[in-house]
Design a protein that fits this description.
This protein has about 475 residues and is an alpha/beta fold. The protein contains 19 helices and 14 strands. The chain binds flavin-adenine dinucleotide and iron/sulfur cluster.
Length: about 475
């Protein structure tokens, strides 16, 4: 245990965000550095619980109390080994995870939880700076080949585990760069892409072959891959966006979040995109439909592009400020959160349903909406329009961030004939194998839209399933 009285002595402290008027003029990450001494004080708050609920809260089963103790004792090298034992990419989760581990931390029952996520981030950054994160090529080769389709966190975790187990791994990605949503969904102000590139270089040195610009199911028939490789892993994500089905949807000026966000990431990466093709919020009145994280990413991007006004509308009610009784500890609660983007500007409004869009000369000018309420009818929450609450709002750019409906159909999945679940995701057994022998799946493609931490956990589980399938036994961990 780090310091037996640490949780009594020290309050929780997290890194500060850079001043708003500074950070909205750049695309760099929003957080300031967190001094090591402060971090060690935070690690000292861990109680090393007999039953550490933080483990159970983390989909990766991260061994959190161990690293808190090691950080407190200045044993950074041991700390990174313990962290890497369960998580291939702590630099992604340390920056981007909503930290279900912290929601489950025992200290959180009647105090502020341990800053687990920050400790994780500092361990991995310390390790990179110390030169301890090096390629770990396999000591022997199995001669088996695996194709992974999709290069998001699920595909990457699966690839790294399999390459280290000695298999020849090729990752196919339809985009021009590797990384999935880490590359083109998540804005740079949440994670600068140099952190992704650094990890990809390590993986290449471990023997992973990346093949960007290949859309499996279109450029190559998936059945050919099945013949060419000993196993496949489908990690194509849940990229089909939920659409807005109202009159006027076809007007110019209405885009999905994932049409909008990647363009800015591409420009930041140095790509030339002509102004007439670039979707920009500059000087525009912007409305974002969807009150979740994707909506917040659109907000932060629009503000940096110089939007005149940004409104974010959500159809559901505003979440409560504190943990509601029906979501008790250690569950991850749905509460009102203020992300860095919300701190920077824009206005959020709730219980708003868009009814139609109108425009002039084919261009969007106005969003028409009505306020709704949710009432209990026979134990079910039912949405009702509030009579007389109709209103209109001028808008130049409407961004749809209303969630995703599962993996895209019409190519890869049909060619392989994999069975789908009722929700339209790819079905998998407990070893992550689909209904087609030798074809495995991981991440959002099988879970539906989820989190990076789950994608990594799934990728690791699929790698274990594949190794077992190819070799008849496996030493790869369960998670
Ligand atoms: C805007 C946005 C922001 C987010 N922010 C966060 C966050 O802050 N924290 C968090 O935990 N989660 C976040 N998420 C969710 C998280 O990014 C996903 O849960 C995670 O990336 C899923 O990983 P994946 O590997 O399953 O799929 P993805 O990351 O979606 O990667 C799948 C890849 O497969 C490729 N692909 C698909 N089909 C084919 C094919 N036929 N051939 C070749 N390639 C193919 C796609 O191009 C894509 O690159 C966010 C999601 C979005 C949309
Ligand atoms: S639940 Fe919280 S206090 Fe307990 S071991 Fe985990 S991080 Fe430490």
């Amino acid at each position: 245990m780090a310091k037996p009285t640490g949780f009594l002595e020290y309050p929780r402290e997290t890194p500060k965000r850079r001043p708003v008027d500074q950070r909205v003029h750049d695309w760099l990450e929003v957080y300031e550095e967190f001094p090591i001494e402060k971090l060690q004080t935070q690690a000292a708050r861990c109680m090393d619980c007999g039953i550490p609920f933080c483990h159970q809260g983390c989909p990766l089963g991260n061994i959190i109390p161990d690293w808190n103790d090691l950080v407190y004792r200045n044993r950074w090298r041991d700390a990174i080994e313990r962290l890497h034992a369960t998580n291939n990419f702590p630099e992604f989760t340390g920056r981007l995870c909503p930290a279900p581990c912290e929601a489950a931390c025992v200290l959180g029952i009647n105090a502020d939880p341990v800053t687990i996520k920050q400790v994780e981030l500092e361990i991995i950054e310390y390790a990179w700076q110390a030169g301890w994160v090096r390629p770990q090529p396999a000591s022997h080769r199995t001669g088996k080949t695996v194709a992974i389709i999709g290069s998001g966190p699920a595909g990457l975790a699966c690839a790294q585990q399999l390459a280290r187990a000695g298999h020849e791994v090729t990752v196919f990605e339809r985009d021009d760069r590797i990384g999935g949503l880490l590359r083109y969904g998540i804005p740079d102000f949440k994670m600068e892409k140099r952190f992704l590139d650094r990890r990809l270089a390590q993986m290449e040195a471990e023997g992973v072959v990346f093949r960007p610009g290949v859309n499996v199911g279109k450029d190559i028939d998936a059945r050919e891959l099945l013949e060419e490789f000993d196993a496949l892993c489908l990690a194509g994500g849940a990229t089909q966006p939920r659409d807005l089905q109202v009159p006027g949807r076809e007007l110019e000026g209405v885009y999905f979040a994932m049409q909008y966000l990647p363009m800015q990431n591409r420009r930041n990466a140095g790509d030339e995109i002509p102004d007439e093709e670039f979707i920009s919020a500059k000087d525009k009145r912007v409305i974002i439909l969807g009150g979740g994280d994707t909506g917040a990413d659109c907000l932060g991007t629009a503000l940096r592009q110089g939007a005149r006004q940004v409104l974010q509308y959500e159809i559901l009610p505003r979440p409560p400020a504190t943990r509601p009784p029906e979501q008790p500890w250690p569950l991850y609660p749905n509460i009102y959160r203020v992300s860095s983007a919300h701190e920077e500007g824009g206005e959020r409004d709730y219980c708003i349903m868009t009814t139609r869009l109108s425009g002039e000369n084919g261009r969007l000018t106005t969003l028409h909406a009505v306020r709704v309420e949710f009432v209990n009818e026979d134990g079910r929450q039912v949405m009702r329009e509030i009579p007389g609450s109709e209103f209109s709002e001028p808008v130049d750019l409407l961004l749809l961030a209303m969630g995703f409906l599962g993996p895209e159909k019409g190519g890869l999945l049909e060619q392989l004939g994999v069975q789908l679940t009722e929700r339209g995701n790819v079905w998998a057994d407990e070893n992550k194998m689909t209904s087609v022998p030798g074809v495995f799946t991981a991440g959002d493609m099988t879970r539906g839209q989820s989190l990076i931490v789950w994608a990594i956990a799934e990728g690791r589980a699929a790698a274990r399933g594949i190794d077992q399938y190819l070799m008849g036994e496996t030493l790869l961990p369960i998670n």
